[in-house]
Design a protein that fits this description.
By secondary structure, the chain is α/β, with parallel strands linked by helices. It contains 6 helices and 7 strands. Helix 1 crosses helix 6. The relative contact order is 0.17. The structure holds flavin mononucleotide.
């Protein structure tokens, strides 16, 4: 049994939903899981965790500053544990952009931080026009128009491949054959 910390960075909650699914699978595998916002980790005893996972969504091309701030402040600790990172974005709905090697935001992330996560993944996010404010809705519809995505203002679509989330979760939990987090492939295989 390991103590696993999952930190999330979300605006509309979809990354949290993904993290909750990962938590459920890790708990079913017998681990003790703590889920927390990366914006506020006060009161969390970071060194007490055996594995650390960070998940963060993209908004207007960027992960939020709190993600980089946390990594910078805790790099040594992160690197001393089996660790993983995943990003959530809409571009990843496209098969040719939904892998760590091909997703532009993940590639950018790896350029922006000294951390080399042992395990990486990319999950397609959720589109929920009715939930957005008028300006965001307009902007995202425009981006969808030029990238050939759905533009109807009542569209709500979850592009997330939950099977892939489950595979990632099982790898974190160490229940995937030959794929315990400690045995994760080195990140050098990612072309950055
Ligand atoms: C205002 C806004 C801006 C976004 N910008 C991008 C973007 O630049 N690229 C992208 O691939 N997805 C973008 N998305 C899609 C989000 O990454 C996607 O909805 C994701 O599921 C959000 O996760 P969250 O709910 O955890 O924040 C944007 C969404 C919104 C609402």
């Amino acid at each position: 049994m390991s103590a696993i910390l999952i930190l999330f960075s979300t605006v509309d909650g979809h990354t949290l939903t993904i993290c909750e699914r990962i938590r459920r699978i890790a708990e079913q595998a017998g681990h003790n899981v703590t889920l927390a916002s990366i914006e506020d980790t006060t009161g969390i005893d970071l060194p007490s965790f055996d594995r650390i996972v960070i998940g963060a969504s993209i908004r207007y091309g960027k992960h939020r500053p709190a993600v980089f701030k946390f990594i910078e402040a805790n790099l040594q600790l992160l690197e001393s544990r089996p660790n993983a990172f995943f990003t959530v974005n809409i571009v990843a709905r496209k098969p040719e952009k939904n892998r760590p090697e091909t997703n532009p935001y993940l590639r950018n992330f790896l350029r922006q931080t000294p951390w080399k996560p042992q395990r990486l993944d990319v999950f397609a996010g959720r589109l929920d026009y009715p939930r957005y404010g008028p300006l965001d809705r307009l902007m995202i519809r425009f981006i969808m128009l030029i990238t050939k995505g759905p533009t109807a203002p009542d569209t709500v679509i979850e592009f997330t491949d939950w099977q892939r989330v489950d595979d990632f979760a099982r790898a974190i939990a160490g229940t995937e054959e030959g794929n315990a987090p400690d045995a994760a492939p080195p990140v050098s295989s990612v072309d950055i």
